[in-house]
Every structure is written in C-alpha cells, then in structure tokens.
Amino acid sequence: MNKLVPITLLVVILLGVLYVYIYSNNRFRFKLSDTGISQLEPSPQVIFVSSDFHLVAPDGMKYTQPSITQGRTDVVSVTPWLAPVVWEETFNEKLLDSIYMKKNISVVATVFAVGKYIMFLKDFLETAEQFFFVGFRVSIYVFTDRPNDVPHVKMAEGRQLNVLPVPSSNRWQEISARRMELIQKLIEEKLINKADYIFCLDVDSKFHGRWGTESLGGLVAVIHPGYYRDDRSRFPYERRPISRAFVAPGDGDFYYCGGAFGGLIQEVHQLAKTCRKNFEDDAKEGIEAAWQEESHLNRYMWTNKPSKILSPEYLWQDFKARNPEIKIIRFSGVVKNYAAIRPN
Ligand code: UDP
Ligand code: MN
C-alpha cells in the first residue's frame, strides 16, 4: 500500500508530462500540404501559409537595382497598415514570376454568367488567356444557368475551364448577392488544400494588360475606380446602422470593388462566409445593403485589413476617361445597357 502511492503519483505526473508534450506538439506542428500551403493543426481556423511569406528567388537572376529613393511619386504605394498598393512601375514582374514559378502555385478565378450576362463570357475568357497569370496553373470556374452556351475557348496547357450550373434568377441583386454563398461552397467542396489563390471577378469585363503574380497576397482588395480621389464621406458604403454592412461616417479606408477581390483560399473563404452570413441575417430582417455584397465586402475589409491592395489599374471602367496616374489598364468593365441585360 505504502509503495503504491508514490508509484501512482509518478504515473500521473508522467501522463501529465506526456499530455502536455503531445498537446503542444500538435498545436505547433506544421503540415506542408502538396500545394505548398502549410497548415497549422489541429485548428483549421488558423492557418500559416508558406507560399506567401517565404520568397525564394532563383539563383543568378539579373534585374534592375531597386531603389528606396527613386520611383513613382504621383501615387501612394503603401497603406497606413503597411500593405502594398500595386501600381505599374512598383514591381518587377520577371522577378515576381520567377519566385512564384518555383512555388508551383495554382490560381483559381471565379466568374458568374447568369442569364444574359453569358454574352460577356467569351471576351472575358479569351482575354484572360492573354493576360491573367500567363504561364501559371489556372482554373477558371464559371457559374451559369446556361451551361450549353458557354463558349469554347482554347485554353493553354495547365489551364482549365470548369462549368458549374446554378439556378436562374429574376432579380439581379440576388444573383450578385448569392455569389458569396457559392464561392464559400466552392472553396469548401473543391478548393481547400487544392489551390493556393483565388480571384473572384465580374464577367462584364475584359483584360487589357497583365494581371499576374504582383497581385498575390493574403487578402487582396481592388480600389474602386469611381471614388479613389474622393473624401470617405462620399463613399457609397451602407449608411443605415440597422444593416450589418453599416460603415459609420468618419470610418472606412478606401472604397473597394465588389467586382474583383481575392487572395489566399483560406482568407477568401473567411470573407465569403462572413459576408454571406451578414447578408442573410440582414435579409431575414428585410434589409438589403445599398450595394449588396459590395457593401458587405467593404464592411469586412474595414475590420479585416487587406494585406495587398490593387490600384484601379485592376478594375477600371471603359466609360471613364483614363486619369494620368493610370499608366496601364489591366482589367476594365465594359459599357453595358443595364435595361437590356438584367432580368429586372
Ligand atoms: N450577374 C450575372 N447575371 C445578372 C446580373 C449579374 O451573371 O443578371 C453577375 C455577373 O458576373 C456580373 C456580376 O454579377 O458581372 C455583378 O453585376 P454587374 O456587373 O451588373 O454589376 P456592376 O458591375 O454593374 O455594378
Ligand atoms: Mn460588373
């Protein structure tokens, strides 16, 4: 009996030490998945990503010397939270491409072509072949209610087109708003741990210039071309406090586009899930934010600061005259006749 007590105590202590060891080991273990993303286990909520912070340049690459005193002076290329703002002449595309080529990254683009918007798809896909992550592994997911009308566009090697059927809708607001839900589901069902980055893009647009590795980041937002010179009080945020997309006067950094956003799969999943929930909770109370999911996206990004921001070069509008700071238009919304193409 006397001997049993210290032995039991020892066993309990040993088990305790073993438990702490296993627990801490699990918490801080990194798993390098085949996509190059390392995931912190066991919590799937918190993810450390290698593809974004460890930038390895190939040996022997020659390129122009970088400078911290010379460069563009007509635009701001960093935010107050020190996220880069991508403008032409602020990056070296050959250098970036070679860094990301070594990582063998894969990039997904989603695009919705519901109802008459299918007419925009051909140009979108053809120009994406010319300018969007050329030379990289790209999967484009087209959500449409007219799968038979998806144009046959020849895709380069390593690039693929996937068509996902969705129901038609009588209200354009609903089509545009349901995008977050469908993006969330696509990520959960097909993309987690299979692709690295995703961009969600409007179909009524065309590429006109390079959109590539310079745009990669954790959470990536595009500055709306219509408001970037304005005071924040003029941004068309949702201004009714009853909505979950509400942004108070005096708040807000930039006005971001709903027509283009992206980043790491896990980050965009978080964004889509949150925006969808807030949108649906609003809807249950009969509220629809001023600019549907764009309003929710702007609210989300006010709290969750994007780690990279793309200048309006990445979503211009064809009807707008080009401002002098826009040295290249990479992606731009076409002029459209709303009455003729929208269901309501
Ligand atoms: N959309 C669609 N069918 C519609 C309305 C919208 O497929 O009837 C999709 C399409 O991808 C479109 C996006 O939702 O690019 C956003 O709508 P829209 O481009 O009309 O909004 P805007 O850019 O004019 O604000
Ligand atoms: Mn659009």
TrEMBL record:
The active site is at residue 294. UDP-N-acetyl-alpha-D-galactosamine binds at residues 112-114, 117, 202-204. Pfam families: Glyco_transf_6 (PF03414). Its cofactor is Mn(2+). GO terms for biological process: carbohydrate metabolic process. Its main location: membrane. It is found in: Membrane. The chain crosses the membrane at residues 6-23. An alpha-L-fucosyl-(1->2)-beta-D-galactosyl derivative binds at residues 224, 294. Binds 1 Mn(2+) ion per subunit. Mn(2+) binds at residues 202, 204. It comes from the Eukaryota. GO terms for cellular component: Golgi apparatus; membrane; vesicle. It is a single-pass type II membrane protein. Keywords: Glycosyltransferase, Manganese, Membrane, Metal-binding, Signal-anchor, Transferase, Transmembrane, Transmembrane helix. One of its GO terms (molecular function) is hexosyltransferase activity. Belongs to the glycosyltransferase 6 family. This is Globoside alpha-1,3-N-acetylgalactosaminyltransferase 1 (FORS blood group). The lineage of its organism: Eukaryota, Metazoa, Chordata, Craniata, Vertebrata. The gene is GBGT1.
